[in-house]
Amino acid sequence: MINRISKSQYLKGLQCHKALWFYRHRRDLYPEIPEARQRLFDSGHEVGQMAQAYFENGIEIKEKYYEIDKAIAATVKAVNQGYEAIFEATACSSDGAFSRIDILKKVDDSDEWDLIEVKQSTGVKDYHIHDMALQRYAFEGAGYNIRKSILMHVDNQYVRRGDIDIKAFFALEDCTGIVKSRLPDVPGFLRDLLVVLNTDMEPFVEIGDFCKKPFECDYTHHCWKHVPAYSVYNIFKGPQLQE
Question: What is the spatial distance between Cα 26 and Cα 177, in angstroms, rounded to a whole number?
């Protein structure tokens, strides 16, 4: 029985139950990662590494993504050792929400922590809030006293002159209020998605606009294979799809 769900799986399931089910039960349908997307992943990793240089007295949790329990234990060890910034910190709630956070930052002279999520975008998107809500839910559920949920993103006003100034390159945006407003929804979403993961039957989901937003689904090649190149779905490809 599947009793844990990661942040990436949670976000995939919020966009489409069928996509989440395919991810766990039909790995044969998962496409090769296009070069453009791989470059985006690599760029995001580089930005994440740059963000670590913003903080002092930090340690990175280096367990593999599938070594959940080891990563959780390593995070607890780093907390007990007194590190002020823990990169790729990992936690899991009792009802199965587990998440890594780019930076778990100790609040000075306190038992509180800030959750800092790093994105290579230049502002806050709605899907970032779902992302950060699950992170906060997982860490609070694991017993961490969380103060703020912060999005650390590229400052679009930054102009490079010589070497990159890390402090000026990033902007930190406090999203605590809106993240907290999403927390009551998380347990219900989590239960629904765990039900999806534990069923043997493929969910019935009609294709629609959500297949392309906020991200193009990995399984459009399968679910849309019966749709001709020009169809009724093209009629609505206008400004509303370019948000």
Answer: 38
pLDDT in tens, 101-119: 999 999 999 999 999 999 9
Find, among 8, 59, 69, the residue nearest to 218 by Cα: 8
The separation between CA 145 and the C-alpha centre of its own chain, rounded to angstroms, equals 20
50: number of Cβ within 10 Å: 16
CATH fold for the domain made of 5-202: Lambda Exonuclease; Chain A (3.90.320)
Q: What type of residue sits at position 141?
A: G
Using the 8-state DSSP alphabet, how is residue 143 labeled?
T
Q: Domain residues of the chain, as ranges?
A: 5-202
Instruction: Name every residue whose Cβ is closer than 8 Å to that of residue 197 and which is 6 or more positions away in sequence.
Output: 2, 5, 9, 20, 21, 24
Whole-prediction pTM: 0.88
* 3-class DSSP assignment, residue 62: coil
Does residue 82 have a pLDDT over 90? yes
Q: Answer yes or no: are the C-beta atoms of 189 and 154 closer than 8 Å.
A: no
* CB-based contact 152:165 (threshold 8 Å): no
Q: How far is CA 25 from CA 30, 32, 54, 95, 105, in A?
A: 10, 17, 40, 21, 36
